[in-house]
Amino acid sequence: MEFLLQGFQALTWQQVVMWAIGGILIYLAIKKDMEPALLLPMGFGAILVNLPLSPVIGDPANGEHLGIITSLFKVGIEASEAMPLLLFIGIGCMIDFGPLLTNPKLFILGGAAQLGIFVTIILAAMIGFPLNDAASIGIIGAADGPTAILVAMQLASKYLGPIMVVAYSYMALVPIVQPAVIKMCTTKKERLIRMKYNAKQIPQLMRILFPIIVTIVSGLIAPDSLSLVGMLMFGNLLRECGVLKSLSETAQTTFSNTITLLLGITIAFQMQAAAFLSLETIIIMALGLFAFVFDTIGGVMCAKLINLFSKEKINPMLGAAGISAFPMASRVVAKMGTKEDPSNHLLMHAVGANVSGQIASAIVGGLIIGILGPFCGL
Amino acid sequence: MLNLIGLLAAFDNLTPMNMDALLPALNFLWQGLLAIFVVIGLIIIAVKITAFAIAKCDEIKKRREEAAQDAENGQTNS
Prior knowledge:
With about 375 residues, chain A is mostly helical. Chain A contains 20 helices and no strands. The longest helix of chain A is centred in the last third of the chain and has 31 residues, at about 280-310. The N and C termini of chain A lie far apart (about 50 Å). With about 80 residues, chain B is mainly α. Helix content of chain B is about 85%, strand content about 0%. Chain B contains two helices and no strands. Mean pLDDT of chain B is about 80; it is low at about 5-10. The interface of A and B includes residues 122, 125, 279 and 364 of A.
């Protein structure tokens, strides 16, 4: 009868803690509606991979059968980073760059809102993390799960699991983190600044050329960002070309949903108790929060700086929408704008800054791989 | 803050504020920020030029169409 007790005998307290963490992720997904498409599979996966003798994480290297989650991880993430990259096609298909093309100046805010990434790299390096891990932790500030996964994988960070969990969790926490930081950095007068929205029709040719231009420019200056930016822009070209409607719809719905589903459960491979439960994970969580805060500060301060030289004032809150968390960041800014003045509608401007953050974070991901790769022995 | 540093120091791999890492990390900061703004600047310029070129082309096309229309009207009148 001993075989009935094998599971109980192999159980460790760390695994029970991971069940609790899985339970919290499932709770946040269902009850709080926080990124449910990702947190729910991740939460269930955390329980699944932390059951003693779980065959789903079997590894032939240890004389076991290849488990389904090990297999998905090795093929979909480790070998080629295919899953996060393919997800970018779907994201690109969902994004309308119209508001950004109406006011290209907003692109600057997307760049400035990446400040937190670099500041966090400095802090993480000073705390003592090796450079590859520091950079991978800093990229949490990209507020972009696929970018965080890609950079952590390419820089061979041993903290891939905590980084992925923290990146996705904080994206869901944008509505809680950002308002406080925005209020801290702006005055009421600044938050009341009105902006005209010139809803001019963007020619289809411009919409088609934009993804091609972005791909060429970023490919020439930051070639390492091409896999991310290229997939994002390919998705956008599918959307804007006007002749591939069914492909575009599939990429936006079925395709993205399938990849998201597989990605969520596959990420759980990195949530095995032995690797996940450590003091470093807690520090990574703190650093992730730090990155988000400094991203917001960077964007807001950049908008204020632009206002010093520009006739047409920008509402500095838009700087906070320059982070990549789409569309949460733009919703937060729009909501804050109407809260300050119910007749001040900032949504379209915020969406412009937000989609620019999407591109900028992908470029920064590539830049980090390009700049730090040689120092990390890559 | 001091408590945090103490906590970190207690951990094997992490040391209290490694100041040696500051300079190289600052180097990455300026390189990274400069690169992202260069890319963004170039994209903005390229977008502006493309938008200008498209608007000009549309204008020329419109003028040609108007001229053709005028010519057609002139022929009909004569």
